[in-house]
Amino acid sequence: MALMRITSPHAHGPMSTSKVMLNVLLATIPGIVVLTHFFGFGTIVNILWGSVVALACEALALKLRRRPLGFYLKDYSALVTATLLCVALPPYSPWWLIAVGIASAILLAKHLYGGLGYNPFNPAMVGYVVLLISFPIQMTAWAPPRGVGELPGLMQALQACFTPAAFDGATMATPLDLLKQNNSLLVKDLWRQSPQFGRWAGIGWEWANLAFLAGGAWLLYRRIFTWHAPLAMLAGLALMAALFNDGGSSASGGSPLFHLLSGATMFGAFFIVTDPVTSAVSVRGRLIYGAMIGILVYIIRVRGNYPDAVAFAVLIMNFAAPFIDYYTQPRTYGHQRGEGEK
Amino acid sequence: MTEFITQYPLVTALLALVSLGAVFGAILGFASERFRTEGNPIVEQINEILPQTQCGQCGHPGCRPYAEAIANGEAINKCPPGGEAGIQALADLLDLEVIPLDEEHGEQSVKKVAFIREAECIGCTKCLQACPVDAILGAAKQKHTVIDSECTGCDLCEEPCPVDCIDMIPAEQEGLQTWHWQLPNPVSLEVDIIATDAPREEAA
Amino acid sequence: MRKVFDFHGGIHPPENKYQSVRTPIADAGIPPQLIIPLSQHIGAPAVPVVAAGDTVLKGQLIAEPKGFVSVPLHAPTSGTIVAIEERQIAHPSGYQAPCIVIASDFNDEWIPHSGTRDYRNLDKAQLIERIRAAGIAGMGGAGFPTAAKLSVREGVKIDTLVINGTECEPYITADDILMRERATQIVAGTLILQQLIEPSATLIGVEDNKPEGLAALRSAAEGTAVEIVEFPTKYPSGGEKQLIEILTGKQVPSGGLPADVGVICQNVATAVAVYDAVVLGRPLISRITTVTGEAVAQPQNFEVLLGTPMSYLLALAGYQPQKNRRLIMGGPMMGFTLPSPDVPIVKTTNCLLAPTEIELPTPTPAQACIRCGMCAQACPASLLPQQMFWFAQGKEFEKLENHNLFDCIECGACSWVCPSNIPLVQYYRASKAEILQLRRDNEKSEQARIRFEARQERLAAADAEKEAKRAARKKAAEERALQAAADGGEEDPIQAAIERAKAKKAAQVAGAADENELEKLEKAVVTTRKRLETASGKLEQAKTEGSDLVAALQTGVDKTRAKLNAAENALHDYQLANSDAPMENAAPTDAAQAAIERAMAARSAEAALSPSEKARAQLEKLQVRLEKSRAKLAESRDSGAEEKIIEALESTVERLSEKIAAAEQELQATEGA
């Protein structure tokens, strides 16, 4: 047998794209468990159905683009997209809503741009925004948390998904909704009046956020991504909330702690902002990228039309990522600062 | 004034537009004069891209005339020695569409140099006259030879030779000094991740 | 304790060094045949000073350096020069290169040599000369001639001498074992270099994964001005630029040399070679090479003669070729694959790595870049590998250069961490080479442009000059004609005849450029022939009359006849030269234009044809040319032309016949297809 002739390096590190994706999938488990505990099986049904649709869409796209199925399905990126989108969707979403969202994410946001690695926008967030704009009623119908309303069982969850017409689940405004729509009560009174609020933020929401924080911390520990972007985002959001926190008037935007533990904050910080494909790349770039998302999240949450804002903030900063990269090229060894930035 | 505006809205609008146009036109005109860039004339830039083989395959007597012709709107795909890369560069410079090489003007081939078999040369100086870059050394009734470092491989000397003693041989075969790794196959064709769906042709 | 600095990026691949340091350095012995490549260093190849059949002694000079950046070669053992020929060498291309092949006589007989213990009495030039004469080239892997590196330019102050004992690549232990076993020589060599360079600090930098080597060096360096610096293990801290940053905190400017920041860097093995050269007087003829990997039964370090075939060395270590699909010279990060196990060991062979498939698996196909940025975190040069990968794929060379592609040291850290398994280093290597090629091409085309323009100018100037002369003559003739007309009336018939002849001549000269050269030559022949006839007639007459002018007339006739011959020859030559292009009436300036036009016409005609038609047209063309050549040949033979010309024509005919045969074959092939 002739000796192989290939270029160096001949050794390769232990990391692979599939492992990165698997790690991300594993890291979502605590958050999903907490969501299920507080809101029932809706999220899990979302994810299962979403994954089936995602794999089908991915296979279809690969087939149309004449790419080998096995090689690309093995990178698990479609499953990650499906999981992230389905976690963000309200539990007990109808099957068609999920299908439309996943199809937009996989076909529109990913494969139309050339597949994994070439998409300028986060596919899960594109899917989410498409749904939010097209079906605002379904997208803002969150189930009441455990202890506030009745939790549907597994069978009911399946029913909600596949025969939505027959499902009659209660829905309730989320804490972010309540705060946004409030314009007469002091925050303290609002808090007392609404059963959805918990110790620091909303019931269930606060624990889900902490669970996603734990998952993110594990990914950080595994060095799947660096701390720069997520911490910058949390810092940006907390800073904005602290700057504009007026102590709880009727026009209050909410305290920093409330914002950090509400909505999709932690989920966004560790699972969406860290998406490497669509974020800035250099260390300085990731700091700027994360911080800008944090600031935008606060602005849109408090001043915008939608109760949560992670998806919009991320997509807006996706636009800016190449621009940020352009101006944050690191100084190459042996060069003076500035001369590389031509 | 206000009365006039309210009474003749159409006339007012027209006047406003015209005066706006005049003002902006004046500003633009001033700016284009004031900030004019004394860049390389376009012919020079085109000429820099052309390979300077002076081979005349484009139908012009040399590269510069072709550069002038391109500046005047001639097609950019008539230069076989420049090849696809040359067309690409010209298209970038002139903001034109990349078009395939016009085969009528010859095919892109490996770089060659002329070689005179000196035993057969009769010293007629025909090739000296044909060489556009004075790369052939010789005198009447003396053997001629090619200075291969100056030869552009245009093959204009081959045809005039009465005894057919000039060969075009491939230039400097790849040696240890020039060997290098090739670009990897674009993540190979069976697992292609390139955004365009057609298999990319490797520009060799 | 000296402060050590950190550099950006870096990785921690599994070290795999323990396998080959379990036994001391083994002597590889003398192989039956040694193959010594003339180029084992960066720079011009050495020039052999021996010939096949010569016998040489161990350490004898066999090739001289050529130029400043070059090193000599010495016979690694005594024996006979078998050949100086092309052999396959240790290079990823698998190409051959000139080598001196020596058959050993196994006596290992040294040529008389001597060094000096008190090198302190030698001045710098003498020291450098000894290092140069010993053929030392950087032994860490790059192979830059050491003497050239040590010849610091005037006015450059070197304040730090760095001896590199880092050996950050996995698997390689050649320097490690050298430090363990020969620390005294390393320190002695370092002191010689210190005397040569006179730095204010001399540092030997060693990673903290070599405690035994560090301890040995520390005890050897006791009481000297050599400082041993230990720093954390991280790949690629052994890269020259990275090591300089670790030890001094300074960065070598892009495109510059370490000397620009007052540093000179040498490998520990080079220091030992310097010691051998100066103190023992021994040239560089052997080195320490690690043989390791799971495809060898006993991984270990060998002291091996340069030129030893690798297969010989591998056999000593228990090489199992069936387990090995990829043989690497150097380490797993920067080493290159060898085309065959039979290539020789050279001055830069620090390691032979024979891994099994499980140990270093064949790379899997690359997946998509997900821009995770791990490569940018790992890059010791702070580049953006993912961006450069993007540009390299699109061959956007300008952007690559703006992203400082040429500061890439090809350490492989980016490829190692890449989760998508993209061969990033290969992209950068290929792109670098293509950019350099483009630069060379651009230089060449610029040169061609200058020559072309110079030629155009010259031709234009020549034309202008001719034109000016012609105009001047015409004017003169006109003036004279006017003068004659003004003189008017009385015509002196003689004067008139003279005038006519003059005018005719002037017209002739003036029109020479335009006039058909052929006609002129023909006219010359005719007039000369006429003159010869008259002269012969006169001679006949004189003979019959018995005049005493016979002798003079005879020489006249002879001379005229010679002239006639010359004229005829000239005419014939001209016809011969022009017969291929009988229409060639144009001035030489237009020769190129005419050629272009003809070539264009031919090409456009060709383009419209099918392959078989093309082949047929080609054949017909050749046949016409053959006929023409034959006719020419016959003509030349009849007219008794020069031998040389006949020969040339004969070979032309022969060649054309061959070409026709080939064309016929091609025609058949295309028609058959």
Question: Would you summarize the structure shown here?
Answer:
The complex is a heterotrimer of chains A (342), B (204) and C (673). With 342 residues, chain A is mainly α.
What do you see in this structure?
The complex is a heterotrimer of chains A (342), B (204) and C (673). In chain A, 59% of the residues lie in helices and 0% in strands. Chain A has 342 residues and is mostly helical. Chain A has 2 domains: 16-172, no CATH class; 174-328, no CATH class. Chain B has 204 residues and is mainly alpha-helical. Among the domains of chain B are: 42-105, 3-methyladenine DNA Glycosylase II, Chain A, domain 3; 110-172, Alpha-Beta Plaits. Helix content of chain B is 32%, strand content 7%. In chain B, the strands form 2 sheets. A two-stranded antiparallel sheet of chain B has the order 1-4. In chain B, strands 2-3 form a two-stranded antiparallel ribbon. With 673 residues, chain C is an alpha/beta fold. Chain C folds into 4 domains: 18-353, NADH-ubiquinone oxidoreductase 51kDa subunit (Rossmann fold); 377-484 and 493-508, no CATH class; 516-578; 609-672. Chain C is built from 19 helices and 17 strands. In chain C, helix 4 packs across helix 7, helix 10 (385-393) packs across helix 13 and helix 15 (517-545) runs antiparallel to helix 16. Classes of the chains: A mainly alpha (342), B mainly alpha (204), C alpha/beta (673). At the B-C interface, helix 6 of B face helix 13, helix 17 and helix 19 of C.
